[in-house]
Write a structure and sequence with these properties.
Layout lengths: L1 H15 L1 H14 L7 H10 L6 E3 L5 H11 L6 H21 L8 H14 L15 H13 L6 H18 L2 H18 L3 H24 L3 E2 L7 H8 L2 H15 L2 H19 L10 H7 L2 H11 L10 H17 L4 H42 L7 E3 L1 H10 L6 E3 L11 E2 L16 E5 H6 L1 H6 L4 E5 L2 E5 L2
């Protein structure tokens, strides 16, 4: 009965407040053209229609659970929005479910999930990514599953090793970031569970390697191309980061990212809370999961180190724990102060009423603006010669595949002029001649790419251009 009631308090608020999710949806597929988030939808659609042979998937394939869920949800969704809304429910559950693994009452889990959703509506461009498939949210799910398995004391070491090999093999084939972000917690627990069985302790990593290899071979069998993470040279990047030039590059990256108010706010808040945990550790003597949580607090540091050596932007899609840690800790403090659950819920409801009263109008404006921009792109593009073969930069291709009301003959071409099938199904272009950029009569380019490579397009003879909101339609005279 308790589980049914808990499920009710998770699911009902989510669908009742689906306009919050609509803010996220319209930002990523209206205000901007976030084509990367459309990959799971198109993959699922192809599996149910033309087949998946020909897909070239990214290193973090998102097969488990994002793609698996996408395949199951696609036949049930009547529209693209419904597809993402249903998938969003799964991601919505994760912050609350994970909280229970760190000592928070299960009954407070729905509040953690709801606060996370409210933050996503406030920051749709960053935290909003959490509710879109393929954006590393699966780290939370894989982490929750791992802790659930490792916490079961009654499971024998042999069975536990089989479960971990299966789970971690799927994790490595789907989401390599999972191992980076959860290693500080899982490695100590793993060693503790198998310290009396050193043979299994050594065998499990080998089993994971073999399992991952088998999964990638299975992908090849089904005609999928998977970009190996080793192509990004992790070891050479680490070596390049520890010399003077590399340290200077990392310092410049931090100075650039520190300008961003949102990142600076969450990072300072995280440091304050982490300091409180360490300084007042005796006050948390009754908290059984204290050590586990402190180890998790090291995760953002490890992730930021990885982003720094690769010179990657500190995008929130890599730093969800930086937001989850303060949200969880806030509710845990209320629990530790012996506040009644009913009092916490009442305060939370008053907060939600105030939030919706203040921001409902701005949310409506963003939703309307997103719809108008998407309709504007489609209207502008429909006036073109859709029978022509069109060369395109990366971002418009999948977006048009999903939202264009009529089929388009659009081929991804890199700025250097060659066929570019990154996160793309090559089967889409089987009836379109793949040729160099110089041989196309028409080109579709997002504005940032156009400004960056304008001289190249001019030298290739694309002299006529027409604005299409945040795209440029180019044509040779």
């Amino acid at each position: 009965m308790k589980d049914i009631r808990l499920t009710f308090f998770y699911v009902v608020p989510y669908f009742f407040m689906q306009n919050i999710f609509e803010v996220i949806y319209e930002y990523h597929f209206g205000i901007v053209t976030n084509s990367d988030a459309l990959y799971p939808y198109l993959f699922a659609k192809d599996l149910w229609t033309i087949g998946i042979a020909g897909w070239n998937v990214p290193p973090s394939t998102s097969f488990f659970p994002d793609i698996v869920l996408s395949i199951l949800v696609y036949p049930l969704a009547s529209s693209t929005f419904r597809f993402y809304l249903i998938l969003g429910l799964f991601f919505y559950l994760l912050p609350g479910l994970l909280s229970s693994k760190f000592g928070l009452y299960k009954s407070l889990g729905p509040l953690v999930s709801f606060v996370f959703l409210l933050l996503a509506a406030e920051f749709p461009s960053t935290i909003g990514q959490f509710y879109l498939p393929g954006f590393h949210t699966s780290v939370f799910y894989l982490f929750f599953l791992s802790l659930s398995i490792l916490d079961k004391k009654e499971i024998s070491s042999t069975k536990l090793s089989v479960y971990l090999i299966l789970l971690f093999s799927f994790a490595f084939a789907s989401e390599q970031l999972f191992f980076v972000q959860t290693a500080t917690v899982l490695i100590p627990i793993y060693i503790q569970r198998f310290k009396k069985n050193t043979k299994l302790l050594a065998f499990i990593p080998l089993g994971i390697c073999l399992g991952t290899f088998a999964l990638f071979k299975l992908c090849e069998f089904f005609g999928l191309g998977v970009t190996s993470v080793l192509q990004f040279s992790p070891f050479s990047n680490i070596m390049n980061a520890i010399n003077l030039e590399g340290l200077e590059r990392i310092w410049n990256l931090w100075k650039q990212e520190w300008i961003q108010t949102e990142f600076r706010f969450w990072f300072i808040l995280y440091l304050i809370l982490f300091s409180i945990l360490i300084i007042f550790r005796r006050s948390f003597s009754e908290w059984k999961e204290y050590n586990r949580f402190v180890l998790l607090c090291l995760s953002p540091i490890v992730t930021l180190f990885l982003l720094s050596i690769y010179s990657l932007s500190f995008n929130q899609r890599y730093l969800y724990f930086l937001i989850w840690i303060p949200v969880f800790f806030s509710f845990f403090i209320l629990q530790a102060l012996r506040f009644k659950k009913s009092t916490i819920v009442l305060v939370f409801l008053l907060f939600c009423i105030g939030y919706f009263w203040s921001f409902k109008e701005s949310q409506k404006i963003l939703i309307q603006k997103g719809k108008l921009k998407r309709e504007g792109r489609m209207s502008c593009f429909s006036t073109w010669d859709l029978n022509a073969e069109i060369a395109s930069s990366y971002w418009p291709v999948k977006y048009l595949k999903v939202f264009s009301p009529v089929p388009v003959r659009i081929v991804p071409v890199s700025e250097s002029g060659i066929y570019h099938h990154w996160i793309h199904n090559r089967t889409w272009d089987s009836k379109v001649f793949q040729k160099p950029l110089s041989e196309y009569q028409f080109a579709l380019v997002d504005v940032p790419t156009f400004h960056q490579y304008e001289s190249i397009f001019t030298s290739l003879g694309f002299s006529s251009q027409r604005d299409c909101l945040d795209w440029k339609i180019l044509q040779k005279q």
